[in-house]
Design brief:
With about 675 residues, the protein is of the alpha/beta class. The protein contains 20 helices and 29 strands. Strands 15-17-18-13-12-19-20 form a 7-stranded mixed sheet, with helices on both faces. Strands 24, 25, 26, 27, 28 and 29 form a 6-stranded antiparallel sheet that branches. A 5-stranded parallel sheet has the order 9-8-7-10-11, sandwiched between helices. The chain binds NADP nicotinamide-adenine-dinucleotide phosphate.
Length: about 675
């Protein structure tokens, strides 16, 4: 079978013979791959002009709905992905991480997009900045999708997840992508892209695929394009130095390798729950995906005092791991991705051997289940021990991308911190301790060198997602050796595909652009109360000014009685005056909010369905008996709910006193029916 690329809306097969892709289990040929003959410049142009233009017609919520539909569609076909995944050497668990993990990333981004982004084309970043005394000149940051193409270059170890974790935020942002999987496992990515295209869920040009090399694609990039790379540090450095990437300042995100550390706390002695959890996790991290995980634990940093017992426990647990053909149910660990990869791991172990001794594992002879060692890329777990990790270099810099990890003893917490930092930047780190003081010291000591840190003890272990699992909600990436990039992290990951622009101007003008009312902007006041208007009829800026109400002692006492809140500052003049913020008894803040609703609510049956909360509530000034309060309520933002017969309306609300001072400010959140 010849793999095909999907370029300019059609599947294209190269006339060239291409690279042979073989099964990791028995060396049998699966496919050949070549991208020779593709017009890479035309692909980039098609993505920008057709894909980008198509995607940007939709709102964030509409694109989020596409991700959900796509996730459901891929779920229906996952059986075929599992069958292909097995040929990469993956066990069922490994495939689950790659396939189900990838699809669930689509679901999470879909849900976050609908909950955390507007049903609109502009994403507003933070509140306005008030830049002038009178409020007629303000600033507002907004994000819009970049108008170029995102080039997604992925590593061989996660042919599905690697693609989907990049595609989800990219498509949600409104940017088209050209996916380039690592060649050795690209047959699985190709199969998934076929399903994505055939689903018809994405508009033309949203996704293209290159099976084979990227040719001269980089020569055609410009300032609106993005490269999101996952792979080795060496390749990342090479690509970052491409002349066009430098000259056009092409946005480049790199997720590279790292020598991830896991620290066992000095309290986690043998016999404690944390010690047992540590053994379990290290063995899992060494053997899932046969250790071919960028986040796998490579450095086991453990108290010298009981590192001997730790090594024995690890050796016992690793001894139970059965290596072989993943199709056999007895097997816990499959082969590496290819024999070339196996040779490379052996070479890296030889480099590590200058600083560390092999204390468990045999590079050549090990029990193999249901497989032929000569044909497959099998390799058994190897545990090394470094006696003097503070003065050794290779154990902190050489990545053996397989089931290989090194034990490093430490005497003090400072030493453990120094060792973890010697990895010079990691994707993920973990700390196993039941002592929160130790957790705090270690976490603050190593966090600047890590993209993600997980702290595991007996309380969190049961539900923990573990050391090595990147999650769509949290950032994936790390400083230094890990590439200096960041992906996912919820909406943060979407923003990598968008441009932030600081706008300056009048609140009315900026409100028009950002599609939300900004304080100081023009108000539309008409006779109809805004609560009588249906969603479509409401306009941003529609405002209601209420009559005023005088606050009395009865109000305060009745509210104290009703709520049960008899805090002294509401009940006793003398005591209240001792408080540095008050001169006398003050009204309850919650009473102010309640009486404000009494002033602005239009009580008749109508389009407003419910109030579902308040945002950003601040009490700015005390309210004393005799104060006269009134409210301004302005329609600030409208978000239509896709597929529903109502939308969300946010109201900018200010309560002011007789001197025009703001005493309370907040956003009221309502659901408002559509007339249709
Ligand atoms: P790699 O050799 O660096 O390849 C990564 C990707 O870059 C592949 O798609 C590869 O395509 C492509 N590539 C290589 N040379 C290129 C060039 N000159 N121009 C354009 N593209 C080029 O890494 P790998 O062996 O696939 O993956 C293993 C490494 O990735 C490990 O070091 C691991 O730690 C790291 N990794 C990191 C993460 C992370 O999230 N940080 C995740 C997984 C893996 P070809 O296959 O066609 O050469």
């Amino acid at each position: 079978m010849k793999l095909q690329s999907f370029a300019k809306n059609r599947w294209q097969q190269s006339a060239a013979d291409g690279v042979q892709l073989v099964s990791a289990i028995d060396g049998g040929e699966i496919a050949t791959s070549s991208s020779e003959g593709l017009d890479f410049g035309a692909m980039a142009h098609y993505a920008r002009t057709t894909g980008g233009a198509n995607l940007r017609k939709y709102t964030f919520h509409q694109r989020a709905n596409m991700l959900k539909a796509l996730a459901k569609y891929l779920m229906e076909h996952k059986k075929e992905f599992y069958a292909l995944s097995a040929r990469t050497g993956a066990t069922r668990t490994d495939s689950w991480i790659d396939i189900d993990g990838g699809i669930s990333t689509l679901f999470v981004f879909s849900s976050k997009g609908r909950r955390e982004m507007p049903n609109d084309h502009v994403y507003v970043d933070g509140p306005p900045e008030f830049l002038s005394k009178k409020g007629s000149f303000v600033g507002q940051h907004i994000f819009l999708p970049l108008e170029g193409v995102a080039i997604h270059i992925n590593a061989f170890n996660f042919p599905c997840w690697g693609m989907l974790e990049k595609l989800a935020p990219c498509l949600l942002a409104g940017m088209p992508a050209i996916v380039k999987p690592a060649t050795s496992t690209s047959y699985l990515t190709e199969a998934m892209v076929r399903r994505i295209i055939e689903s018809g869920i994405l508009p033309d040009g949203a996704v293209q695929l290159i099976c084979g090399s990227v040719g001269d694609l980089f020569d055609h990039l410009n300032c609106q394009d993005v490269i999101a790379f996952t792979g080795s540090k060496t390749t990342a450095e090479l690509l970052q130095q491409h002349q066009t990437v430098i000259a056009q300042s092409v946005r480049f995100t790199a997720e590279t390798d790292s020598l991830n550390a896991s620290i066992l706390g000095p309290d986690a002695q043998p016999g404690t729950a944390e010690f047992d959890l540590y053994i379990q996790e290290v063995v899992r991290e060494m053997t899932v995906k046969a250790g071919q995980k960028c986040t796998a634990i490579r450095r086991i940093i453990a108290p010298a005092e009981f590192s001997g017992e730790l090594v024995s426990a690890l050796a016992r647990a690793l001894g139970k791991v059965r290596v072989g053909n993943p199709a056999n149910k007895e097997v816990q660990m499959g082969p590496l991705a290819s024999q070339g990869q196996r040779d490379e791991v052996r070479e890296r172990i030889a480099e590590l051997s200058g600083d560390a001794d092999i204390i468990y594992g045999d590079l050549e002879n090990f029990e193999l289940i249901d497989a032929d060692a000569r044909k497959g890329a099998f390799f058994a777990p190897v545990l090394l021990h470094c006696q003097k990790p503070l003065t050794s270099r290779s154990v902190h810099s050489v990545e053996a991308f397989g089931p290989v990890s090194t034990v490093m003893p430490y005497d003090t917490l400072d030493e453990a911190i120094t060792l973890a930092r010697m990895g010079e930047g990691s994707l993920a780190g973990s700390i196993f301790t039941g002592d929160d003081e130790i957790a705090q010291t270690l976490a603050l000591g190593i966090a600047p060198y890590h993209g993600r840190l997980v702290i595991i003890n007996r309380d969190s272990a049961g539900e923990s997602t573990g050391h090595g699992s990147p999650l769509p909600h949290l950032v994936h990436g790390g400083p230094g050796r890990a590439g200096g990039g960041e992906e996912m992290g919820g909406i943060r990951g979407v923003l990598h595909y968008m441009q932030r622009t600081a706008l300056q101007g009048s609140p009315t003008t900026l409100g028009k652009i950002a599609r939300r009312w900004i304080r100081g902007g023009k108000e539309h006041v008409d006779e109809a109360h805004p609560f009588t208007k249906y969603f479509e009829e409401l306009e941003i800026g529609d405002t209601h000014h209420t009559a005023s109400r005088k606050i009395t002692v009865e109000d305060i006492e009745n509210f104290a009685e009703l709520s049960g809140d008899k805090f002294y500052a509401h009940m006793d003049d003398e005591l209240a005056a001792k408080n540095p913020f008050f001169e006398a008894r003050v009204a309850h803040g919650y009473f102010i909010v309640s009486m404000a609703a009494g002033l602005f609510v239009q009580p008749d049956f109508g389009p407003v369905l419910a109030n579902y909360g308040l945002d950003d509530l601040r009490f700015a000034q005390p309210v004393y008996m005799g104060d006269e309060l009134k409210v301004r309520l302005t329609c600030k933002q409208k978000t239509m709910r896709e597929g529903e017969d109502y939308g969300e309306v946010r109201w900018d609300t200010e309560v002011s006193n007789q001197d025009g001072e703001i005493v309370a400010a907040y956003d009221v959140l309502t659901m408002v029916a559509t007339r249709s």
